[in-house]
Amino acid sequence: MCGIVGYIGDKAVDTLLIVSLERLEYRGYDSAGMATLNGGKLGIRKQVGKIQILKEILKKKPLEGQLGIAHTRWATHGEPTTENAHPHTGCKNEVALVHNGIIENYAELRDELLKEGHILRTDTDTEVIAHLVEKHLNKSLLVAVQKAVKRLEGSYALAVISIKDPDKIVVARYRSPLVIGIGKNENFVASDASALLHLTSNMIFMEDGQVGFIAKRRVKVLDREGRPVEKKVKIVKWHLLGGPQKDGYRHFMLKEIHEQPAIIRNTLQRRISQGTERIYFEHTSITEEKLPSISRVIIQACGTSWHAGLVGKYLFEKYLRLHTEVDLSSEFRYRMPVVRGDTLVMAISQSGETADTLAGIRLAKSVFLDVLSLCNTIESTIARESDGVIYAFAGSEIGVASTKAYTAELLALFLLTIHWGTLKGMLSKEEAHEMVEELKKIPYYVEEMLDNQKEVLECAERYYQSSNFLFLGRRFNYPTALEGALKLKEISYIHAEGYAAGEMKHGPLALVDEKMPVVCIAPKDSVYQKMISNIREVKARKGKVIAIATRGDEEITKLVDHTIFIPPIREEFSPILAVIPLQLFAYHVAIKRGCHVDQPRNLAKSVTVE
Ligand code: F6R
Predict the structure, then answer these.
(1) Topology of 3-235 in CATH?
(2) Which of 128, 315, 443, 556 is geometrically suited to a Cys-Cys bond with 109, CB 3.0 to 4.6 A?
(3) pLDDT tens, 270-283?
(4) Which residues, including other chains, have CB under 8 Å from residue 107's CB and lie 6 or more apart?
């Protein structure tokens, strides 16, 4: 979380940094700030609130210079205030730095610095790093940062500048991503490649423990022991759907919801070879020979990606007869999983930077398990640290509430199941062909649903003032219930719970009365009659039922208060359709409540701290 960017070169530094920073705003938006060096002087502007406010300040009081660093914050230590905003400086205003991560031993370091006479002005953990660098600063900023980071426990990505060593930006990384962008007579640094893609495709991804600097015509990277490392420059070309423009949509979230048919269509074309109907997954060292020998899968992920993982479990068990567990990464990383050599750990992550998921991968690798990741962000840390990666190909997702990445993850899991099932001999060619043909209908079905939002809008109008919601589903659509509830709560701040419908009578039914809207995901599938019984239970307690049902289902319409239809599809693929009206519902409710859809309070897109 938090976004970092730095630039050294001849361009107008403040404008360049702001444009890059805006591409990182999804990482945090509590406050923003910038520091530049100009003629040996340090200039700083920072302000609580979004980048737009910083932009307005810079219009009135521009920052000039040949190099600079900037930051957009998601508060961890200390409230979101102007004082706590980055960049932070030491006592003498000789050093300015921006930081992403958490310094776990900051209280101890703070006490030590106070005893030494340093004056600390903020509540942040970051400020102690600025004072530590200042303390060690003689001539070389690089050496001072090397010494300072030796004292840090926790995680950090740092960009540091100083009037005492004014021709460089010193950078350091430990458990928080940092990438160096290589230009011509200019160089860049950022917490995320997406901040630099409009400036350069040549990137060096820093590794944990590395420290280095960027100068105008030079880049140096050192390892933990201070030895120069061979710099691996990667060409990152990510010209996919979903740039950082809203393309006429009012919000990124709405744009991303509408991108889903094209993403699904493109991915199907990309992954299924014409004629042979073979499914391809590139970038994976987990080979076709290896897949059939895997007899157990542990999927670990967070939030929406965890919901995709739950659908994966139902798929793998049904079609691959694979023992599959799904764990929240924040739990998995602290468990003592009982594993054997034939266990594959799958990590699912849109951003590819989620700290808990990354820690889960490291745990798996420490016990010599293979890790296959399903990621959306190309060349993200999770993608790079895994043995194999399947990209979701959803393009960059800017809206904090995940929509298109979720359906892209589901599609990848559908395709992987068909591919793996064929390799294992669990799916016949004919069956696989039928499934692929069904998948090809999905983009059209999603388009249909996006073209007709009448019922969704009516439900949003009718219930947007409710304080609580329940979402119920079974089997493949139990994760859909969880996802529908998560979408609603995160962007509209309405309390919503997702439940396996069969669990209702074990407690939650007590919540149901005439004021409780209950969204029931009930397509015509193998558990349809069970869902009907659950709906009757809710109606018997006077709850208001919104059903997500299969088009043409007359029976359900008689029973419920509102019906939103989805096209008929094979049961296992229904989550990708059923979630669309729930995404739209959350969006329209949030709009009616006047909420900030793309940047909901307290959240950030990329959760790089624990
Ligand atoms: C919800 C949402 C989050 C993320 C979670 C994991 O809309 O976006 O719940 O799904 O933070 O993030 P990734 O997938 O980037 O690991």
Answers:
(1) Glutamine Phosphoribosylpyrophosphate, subunit 1, domain 1 (3.60.20)
(2) 128
(3) 898 776 678 888 76
(4) none
